[in-house]
Amino acid sequence: MADPADFSLRPMVESDRARILAWRNTERVRSKMYTDHVIEQNEHDRWFDAALAAESARYLVFEYSARPIGFVAFTQIDYRNGRCLWGFYLGEEDVPWGSAVALEFSSVAHAFGELGIRKLCCEVLASNAAVIKLHQRFGFRVEARYVAHVRKGERFEDVVGLALFKDEWNEQRDRLRASFFRQRGARVGRRVGDSSST
């Protein structure tokens, strides 16, 4: 695993427009999303322009040694109730072992730090067992199962709702950091393809 200090999050900017569309349209990312059609440029441009101006959402790019490798979305940010929904994916395939773990750690820390929320929620396709397990390793608990919730091809698939509270994160943050990042060069976590549904 690379040094955790080599990973960072930054706001999405105009120069990310083409890169994010290319990432989002890969089969391994699309297949884990609620909407899994190939996104055309005009559809992406409408979303991207709205995303840059959104007040109740934050879109970030995940970097390794200043190289963009992934995407994080915090949406439905509700400061009154102190909660939001989040999702992520690794856009690049040739990333260091443990990048998904580093992405999740950085994202959760950002939500409870910079965003200042108290409850972080996510929704994951039930078939995406690897990401559900990853979230649970971070202390997320299953709060809901939405049966036959999303159409995938000719069938409907269940969705699992998970959540983590800030006080739970604060209690385990240092232990998780030590556990996940205990040794430079260790093969921790998954290398490619991790993504959540939203």
Molecular structure report:
This protein has 198 residues and is α+β, with helices and mostly antiparallel strands. Helix content is 32%, strand content 31%. The protein has six helices and seven strands. It has helices at residues 17-24, 27-30, 41-53, 99-112, 129-137, 166-180; strands at 7-11, 58-64, 67-78, 83-90, 119-125, 141-152, 155-165. It has a seven-stranded mixed beta sheet with strand order 1-2-3-4-5-7-6. A hairpin with a 2-residue loop joins strand 2 and strand 3. Helix 4 (99-112) packs antiparallel against helix 6. The two termini are 27 Å apart. The model is unreliable at 184-194 (pLDDT under 50).
Q: Nutshell version of this structure?
A:
The protein is of the alpha+beta class and 198 residues long. The chain contains six helices and seven strands, in the order βαααβββαβαββα.
Element string (H = helix, E = strand): EHHHEEEHEHEEH
Mean pLDDT: 90
Pick out the low-confidence regions: 184-194
As a percent range, the share of helical residues equals: 25-40%
Distance between the termini: 27 Å
Computed Rg: 16 Å
The tally of strands reads 7
Tell me, what's the shape? globular
| Estimated share of beta-strand residues | 25-35%
Strand order of the largest sheet: 1-2-3-4-5-7-6
Number of helices: 6
Main beta sheet, described? 7 strands, mixed
Q: What structural class do the secondary elements suggest?
A: alpha+beta
